Amino acid sequence: MIMLKIFLKTLYVAQVLLLMDMIGCGSMRKNDIICNDLFYSGNVFAEIDAEKAHELLMFYSDSIIIIDVRPSDEFDLFRIEGAVNVNYYGEDFQDSIDVFPREEIYLVYCKYGARSFSAAMKMKDMGFVKLINLSGGITAWIEMGYDLK
After folding, report:
1. Which residue from 1, 40, 68, 146 has the least number of CB within 10 angstroms?
2. Per-residue model confidence as pLDDT tens for the chain (149 residues)
3. What is the rounded radius of gyration, in angstroms, for the C-alpha atoms of the chain?
4. Do 57 and 9 touch, CB atoms closer than 8 A?
5. Distance (Å, whole) CA 92 – CA 94
6. How far apart are CA 99 and CA 59, in angstroms?
7. Which of 132, 70, 85 is nearest to 104 (CA)?
8. How far is Cα 30 from Cα 13, in angstroms, rounded to an integer?
9. Is the CA virtual torsion 71, 110, 113, 38 positive or negative?
């Protein structure tokens, strides 16, 4: 059943992209597609569930920077593929985050979603403009059976 849902979503996205190309929107950047879907009315923050996060990463992984804000010992055990570790409780959190470009799209997660929510709010205060929190954190990701590194 899950595979059927993924197939149908993949087919839908492919049809939308083909239609956009046919009507002249083919030059639209992937970031624009994500932004139109998640960051409407000037919002800089979105909260999505594991299913939506997985879908985004399936199609747009090259356009999203994934930040795991758990301590490094948890990060080293398992993580979402492609994630970088910046410990929210580390002394250097703000300095470590400060090196990232403000305009990129960030998916932030922790174990359950609360710490990453706080991290995303701090990032918002630092001037980041496209932040996504993984509601339920990596726990929700695991419960959905998605792959880990």
Report:
1. 1
2. 565 555 545 545 554 444 344 333 333 454 454 555 555 556 678 899 999 999 989 888 888 999 999 999 999 999 999 999 999 999 999 999 999 999 999 999 999 999 999 999 999 999 999 999 999 999 999 999 999 98
3. 16
4. no
5. 6
6. 26
7. 132
8. 12
9. positive
Name the DSSP class of 123.
Answer: H
Rounded CA separation 80/68 (Å): 8
Residues 76, 96: contact at Cβ < 8 Å? no
Place of tokens 């139109």: 36
**In angstroms, how far is CA 53 from the centroid of its own chain?**
6
DSSP output for 52-86: HHHHHHHHHGGGEEEEE-S-HHHHHH---TT-EE-
The whole-model pTM stands at 0.75
Distance (Å, rounded) from C-alpha 107 to C-alpha 34?
Answer: 12
Q: What are the two backbone dihedrals, phi and then psi, of residue 81, each rounded to the nearest 5 degrees?
A: -50, 130
The answer to whether 65 and 107 are in contact (CB under 8 A) is yes
